[in-house]
Amino acid sequence: MDKPAAPVPPPLAAPAAVSTSEKLMFFGPESDAWKDLKPDVPTGAEKASEERIIAAAKTAREELKNLLLSSLQMQHVIVLAGSGTSLGPVTKGPSMRTLWECCVNANPGAGSAARTVSPAAAKVIAEIGYDIAAEKENIEALLSRCEAYLQVKGSKEVTAFITASKQVILEKCSEFIDPADANQLAAHRTFLHRLSRRRVRDSRLKLFTTNYDLCFETAAGRQGLVVLDGFSFTQPRQFDPRFFLYDIVRRPTTGDDAGTPLEGVFHIYKLHGSVNWSRKTENEIEVEPKPTPDLACLIYPAKGKYQQSYVQPHLELVSQYFSALREPNTCLIVTGFGFNDDHLSEPILAAVRTNPHLRLIVVNPFADDLTARPKEKNKYWETLFSLAKQGEDVWLVNANFGDFAEMIPDLKSLTPAQRLTRDIKLLADSK
């Protein structure tokens, strides 16, 4: 009896519509509603009504500025940056949809009308039984299904597809940064510049990121900031968590032994690996410009990210993440992160509930939508919104990464009156 033919996957659907409101506003503890930062004044509105709207927006902007100003003065400032910080028409980082198209489509970038699955991908999709209609065009879900399939049955086609997909992901996350484009990383440069101007006597900024790319490292290098990334200062640069305990100080020329911490130094923890990390042996990870897909030290998109996070060096980095969330007098800024990774989202909720000295600022251009959808609610967004309404120190900012970077006050640009107000508030808070 002949074996039934494998089902052919349906044509790829056009990309789903995405909300593009990105209206600048925020929601603070015990707020009744979102506060507009740049409201749209209705056409034909009376002058008195227009003035009230403009005055309310000015008050909201001042409130957010004071919040960010006090947050930067907290002893510990940590950042969790997700893929949203690398997306957009300026930065041009690859989205998950782009990775799907480049791994699966025969003609990536051709537009929705001409999108077709490549023969090799179609064969693999049919072999593993991936249902595009049910699971959508999700490269993470597809690779997870492929890896699960190989656990029970060998397949040269599926193995080859995984290898090819890893090569595509590695290339797409490595090659989009243009050294000649001065504006490409403007948001990253502004973000790092303003956060790095904190007082040197405070702890160093700790930047945790799930991104593989080198946006933050490149932006830091272009403005003379020093990145401590857990790798040695000698060649070849090898990973050793002891280097997170090191710091850089400026020694005076007078011969005095005392030194002061160097400005512009921060730590970066790449939780899912980096495009320039190569696993030479099981316990040796080195910085290498272009590692092969098999040697690249990355947690590739798959639903097994939780389990992979407990392998070195990712275990050490996640441990540092957990530890940072437990520190007192800490501000956590989450930007470009969709709360889709349980192993990183759950500790945030736990910290909000158990760390009485934690302030959480969540930045997302669609935060209002994510907290309002009745059927598509992410449990983390729903919980964070509820905590904010209950009065917890949780702030939701509806803005993209670039807009938020511009909102961060420049600490050394404050007027004398603002500095005096800041110092008095800090003194009062410390009592």
Task: Give the arrangement of secondary structure elements.
Layout: E1 25-27, E2 35-36, H1 47-72, E3 76-81, H2 96-104, H3 119-128, H4 132-135, H5 139-152, H6 156-172, H7 186-195, E4 205-209, H8 215-222, E5 226-228, E6 249-250, E7 260-261, E8 265-270, E9 273-281, E10 284-287, E11 296-298, H9 305-308, H10 314-325, E12 330-335, H11 342-354, E13 358-363, H12 367-370, H13 379-389, E14 394-398, H14 401-407, H15 416-430
Helix pairs in contact: 2-6, 5-6, 7-8, 7-14
What does this structure look like?
The chain is an alpha/beta fold and 431 residues long. It folds into two domains: 316 residues, Rossmann fold, CATH 3.40.50.1220; 77 residues, no CATH class. 38% of the residues lie in helices and 14% in strands. It is built from 15 helices and 14 strands. A nine-stranded mixed β-sheet has the order 2-1-14-13-12-3-4-8-5, with helices on both faces. A three-stranded antiparallel β-sheet has the order 10-9-11, with no helix packed on it. Strand 9 and strand 10 form a beta hairpin. Helix 2 packs across helix 6 and helix 5 runs antiparallel to helix 6. The longest helix has 26 residues. The protein is globular and about 70 Å long. The termini are far apart.
CATH superfamily of the largest domain: TPP-binding domain
Rg to the nearest angstrom?
24 Å
Poorly predicted tracts of residues: 1-21
Give the helix proportion (percent range): 25-40%
Molecular shape: globular
What is the mean pLDDT? 86
Largest sheet: 9 strands, mixed
Tell me the domain tally. Answer: 2
Name of the level-1 CATH class of the largest domain: Alpha Beta
Total strands:
14
Counted by DSSP, the helix tally is 15
| Distance N to C terminus | 83 Å
